[in-house]
């Protein structure tokens, strides 16, 4: 499997008119090596050049894991006492990348590694590789989808358990703690992002952090959270009412629920990503809440919680079987109420399947 992934990377390099790719620890290197290398103060950079064995410049303590990764790296190891300068200089002599276009992950590579490459590997032309590299993990195989299903099941079961315990008067932080424990108890792995639990008017903060606000009757309680299985992330949002909903919460909720349903119905193979955004957004605009839907309709989901394809105006790319992404319309009325309903869908040969199945009707928590 590693060999075919490497070949896909070389195909990407050729199609994008690149000479090489340099990766630091992160999801792409994980995908190629099946190993989670630590991103830390010690630089570890791998170089992939079509037609030759990949090269790794790495701290000596990672030598064994690199050897077991299934990729035939030529290793330039450096020790803590000698430092990394000599290893990068030796790799530069081996790679001969003077004047070559070397693509990096512009959202991941740090100034540390970029400076090292430019100073110790003179003549290398660093270019943004984020877009072409997104192809590597864009279509999920059956194993990836099985892992996503498992992560989603853990998250959904954990939310059911957590909601059974929610009572008015509990703080956002207490509720978030219960949700986190419920996922870990069910076998969830690392959290792809810090869970969001927001009560009352704070639900109008799309990326708010749980704090000391207490859940109160008639108010929304918004959960946006996930877990991982084999590195693959779930990313689910549900908004519930604590006790009976206020009329305003029920009104806003119904619009978001309709938008979410329209988005899921619109998704399918051959549909431009922006079309799913347009159809979802139109429901909210037609109800007069367009100004309160302040983000894209969704984003790809896999080894990262945010990856390609973005479901956003301007993304004309046609959806393809195996693509997995979120559909997460929201309405955020500052100081008043926020509602988001987020599902995780996979494009199939004949349409789209929502991997998330948690109820979408407005649930009441708090007994
Ligand atoms: N949670 C919405 C986004 O990040 O696009
Ligand atoms: Mn989310
Ligand atoms: Mn999301």
Overview of this structure, please?
The protein has 367 residues and is an alpha+beta fold. It has 2 domains: 2-136, 3-Layer(aba) Sandwich (Creatine Amidinohydrolase, Chain A, domain 1), CATH 3.40.350; 142-365, Creatine Amidinohydrolase. Helices cover 34% and strands 21% of the residues. The chain is built from 10 helices and 19 strands. It has a 6-stranded mixed β-sheet with strand order 4-3-2-1-5-6, with helices on both faces. Strand 2 and strand 3 (55-59) form a beta hairpin. It is elongated and about 70 Å long. The model has no long low-confidence stretch (mean pLDDT 97). One manganese (II) ion binds at residues 235, 299, 326, 328, 342.
Total number of beta strands:
19
At the first level of CATH, what is the class of the largest domain? Alpha Beta
Write down the CATH topology of the largest domain. Creatine Amidinohydrolase
Structurally, the number of domains stands at: 2
Strand residue content = 15-25%
Order of helices and strands: HEHEEHEHEHEHHHEEEEEHHEEEEEEEE
CATH fourth-tier homologous superfamily of the largest domain: Creatinase/methionine aminopeptidase superfamily
Largest beta sheet, briefly? Answer: 6 strands, mixed
- CATH architecture descriptor text of the largest domain: Alpha-Beta Complex
Quote the distance from N terminus to C terminus. Answer: 50 Å
